[in-house]
Write a structure and sequence with these properties.
Blueprint lengths: L1 H6 L13 E3 L4 E5 L6 E5 L2 E2 L5 E2 L4 E3 L13 E2 L1 H4 L2 H7 L7 H28 L2 H11 L5 H7 L2 H8 L4 E5 L11 H15 E7 L6 E5 L6 E2 L10 E2 L6 H5 L14 H15 L5 E3 L6 E7 L5 H8 L3 H9 L3 H7 L6 E10 L2 E11 H15 L1 E3 L2 E3 L3 H6 L4 E3 L5 E3 L5 H11 L5 H13 L9 H20 L18 H25 L15 H11 L1 H20 L5 H18 L9 H20 L4 H18 L1
Parallel strand pairs: 2-8
Antiparallel strand pairs: 1-6, 2-3, 4-5, 7-8, 9-10, 11-12, 13-14, 14-15, 15-16, 17-18, 19-20
The structure holds zinc ion.
Zinc ion (ZN) binds next to helix 10.
């Protein structure tokens, strides 16, 4: 895992963060006269929307501090850089609590250690800025009291909580001390020395012979790791290979990672885990998965489209040249898409699984995913986010204020992601969930509510994905209604759909006949979808006789209506046509796979009927019914 993370160089990285450094930033600059005779203390925070202050990210030296914290070179918290004077002046420990006493007790030692280290760096490197700091300390820190008094209250608070203070000589053009080239070198060596096992060896990430680390130089951020309750999370104390090599059961006793690679691995982890486009967190917050590509080629656009399928990108992907041609053209077979699934345990990260898939395979898989999951909406092809597909298999409830609340089943987003990049069938359990949700939400079918409609479409996408990768692999179901498909379950779904639309149409015309009083049954309290959807999906044959009688009655209603007569004739033909093709093949019981086919037939017929001209009237009817249904639910 470390090896993988260390091998990743993000395109937007700009400059590499040096070993022992991290992108954190500092909150204050202590500006010194070259002879140490004067100073100014300035806050350099960015102001947040809510008026709070935060450090502007930049590379600063850093180190995981354990029980006996060493000072950090030239850029550290106030006790180190400013020392005891700021404790008395800051006024942030007005009380004499045990915590305040502890800070008071420890501050002189920390300040002294900081001075000593900076002086040691100064004598090795000859960096003149160090002399300015040392003289300033010897002169009794001139200007510091005024500097502390000049800070705003908000800035003073940030100083108290430990935002780092950087040191710079007035008029210097080479920035704060910690960014000087020799300082970067000095600190890198220091970290390596402090954290290393004292051994040199081959780093398993970069393959070079270098001093090897014992522990990682920085920590992972706890807020990115599910199930942890600390701000900083340790990956492990030693032994990277035990985790880095998932297949080697027994741990090798030697750590094998250099400071450079260790630093990059941690920086990359924190960056990826904070990016919703590269990290899926389980809704139950038990696991998270991050993904990234390494190697000469990069599949970020393709894989990113799974997270957020903008039509432009998906269309471009589907039209792109075949992978075989691309593969032949470059060395991109070396490139891989990687996933790391992890959870946490108190203050520790627990890697769960790691996958590496050749980019060529990922590309083909992602394209297949979009081909198999397209649905037609308003005459245009559309695709779903993984999160929307996953949510459509979970519960739907009215929350506070009548808003819909969707509950995404645990692990479903990651399961779908894995199917998408490996071109695998979607898990049977998710198909069963989706079917169950289709039944549970059937009574909402006439609602024009975008969430309800969207969930129906998402389930159609899931049915296509399922069928096209299993039972209908050889003869995939198309994006649009497939008139030529003769599977009994698919035809049965279409037949039920037609009968439902016929009912809507019949009630519409019978209630709007010119001059006629609306009939008592013009707005049925429960439609055949409300009453029979669930049984029809599981055993179409059992509901057929009752539905056939109802359809005759609805056709009769349309025949009596001048305006509806044409529509009635169209429905009669369509229903008789399907009935004829089914013959005596109407199934008594449907398996899960057949139910998926039934549902695909039902949805696709609904989409087609609604698009057709004969349904123009039914649409208006549906809108009216939607208002009623919504009223009833509210
Ligand atoms: Zn290395």
């Amino acid at each position: 895992m470390i090896e993988l993370l260390a091998s990743l160089r993000l395109a937007d990285e700009g400059q590499e963060v040096p070993p022992g450094y991290a992108m954190k930033g500092y909150g204050f600059v202590l500006e010194l006269a070259a002879d140490g005779s004067d100073s100014a203390l300035t806050g350099v925070h960015a102001e947040e929307a809510k008026g709070g202050l935060k450090c502007i990210p930049s590379a600063i030296p850093t180190m995981t501090r354990a029980n006996n914290p060493p000072p950090i070179l030239a850029c550290d918290g106030w006790p180190y850089v400013l020392g005891p004077v700021s404790f008395d002046m800051g006024g942030w420990f007005a009380d004499d609590s045990p915590a305040a006493q502890k800070v008071r007790r420890e501050t002189p030692g920390k300040h002294q250690a900081f001075r000593t280290q900076l002086a040691s760096y100064g004598s090795t490197s000859g960096d003149p800025a160090c002399r300015a700091y040392e003289q300033w300390c010897q002169l009794g820190q001139p200007g510091l009291v005024a500097g502390l008094r000049g800070l705003s209250d908000a800035a003073r608070k940030r100083l108290a909580v430990g935002d780092p203070v950087a040191i710079q000589v007035r008029g210097a053009t080479d920035g704060p001390i910690h960014s000087h080239e020799p300082a970067v070198q000095f600190w890198g060596d220091k970290v390596t020395q402090l954290k290393s096992s004292g051994k040199r060896g081959i780093c398993l990430a970069c393959g070079q012979t270098r001093p090897l680390l014992d522990t990682l130089p920085q920590s992972l951020l706890g807020r990115h790791v599910p199930g942890t309750d600390t701000a900083q999370v340790a990956l492990m104390s030693a032994n990277f290979q035990a985790v880095g090599r998932t297949h080697s059961g027994s741990a090798s006793p030697t750590a094998a990672l250099c400071a450079d690679c260790g630093s990059r691995a941690v920086t990359n982890f924190n960056r990826l885990a904070a990016d919703p486009a590269h990290c899926f967190r389980d809704p139950g917050d038990s696991e998270a998965t991050l993904w990234f590509s390494t190697g000469d080629d990069n599949a970020d656009e393709e894989v990113g489209a799974l997270v957020d399928p903008s039509p432009d990108i998906v269309t471009r992907l589907l039209r792109a040249p075949r992978d075989a041609d691309l593969a032949a053209a470059s060395g991109y077979l070396q490139a891989t898409l990687n996933t790391i699934t992890f959870s946490g345990n108190i203050a520790r990260l627990v890697p769960r699984s790691i996958t590496r898939t050749p980019i060529s395979e990922v590309r083909a898989s992602v394209r297949a995913w979009f081909r198999d999951s397209a649905t037609l909406r308003g005459g245009e092809e559309g695709w779903f986010r993984l999160t929307s597909l996953a949510a459509a298999t979970g519960d739907l409830k009215r929350g506070t204020g009548g808003k819909w609340e969707q509950a995404t089943p645990h692990g479903s987003v990651m399961a779908l992601f894995s199917c998408a990049i490996h071109n695998r069938p979607i898990p049977h359990g998710l198909v069963a969930h989706a079917l169950q949700r289709a039944r549970a939400e059937a009574h909402l079918a006439s609602m024009a509510d975008p969430i309800v409609v969207g969930r129906g479409h998402a389930r159609l996408a899931l049915m296509r994905l399922h069928l096209n990768r299993t039972t209908w692999k050889d003869e995939p179901v198309t994006t649009e209604l497939d008139e030529s498909r003769s599977d009994p379950a698919y035809l049965a779904g279409r037949l039920f759909s037609l009968r439902a639309s016929l009912q809507e149409t019949a009630h519409y015309y019978s209630s709007t006949r010119p001059g006629a009083e609306p009939r008592a049954d013009s707005a049925p309290n429960a439609t055949i979808v409300d009453k029979h959807f669930s049984r029809a999906m599981q055993s179409p044959k059992s509901v057929e006789p009752g539905l056939a009688v109802l359809s005759q009655r609805h056709l009769g209603m349309l025949r009596r209506s001048e305006a509806g007569r044409g529509a009635g004739f169209t429905y009669q033909q369509a229903i008789e046509g399907l009935g004829g093709r089914l013959g005596d093949r109407l199934p008594p019981r449907l398996t899960i796979d057949e139910q998926a086919a039934w549902l695909a037939g039902f949805y696709q017929q609904q989409v087609a009927s609604r698009a057709a001209a004969i349904d123009g009237a039914a649409k208006k009817r549906a809108d009216q019914a939607a208002t009623t249904t919504e009223g009833n639910l509210a």
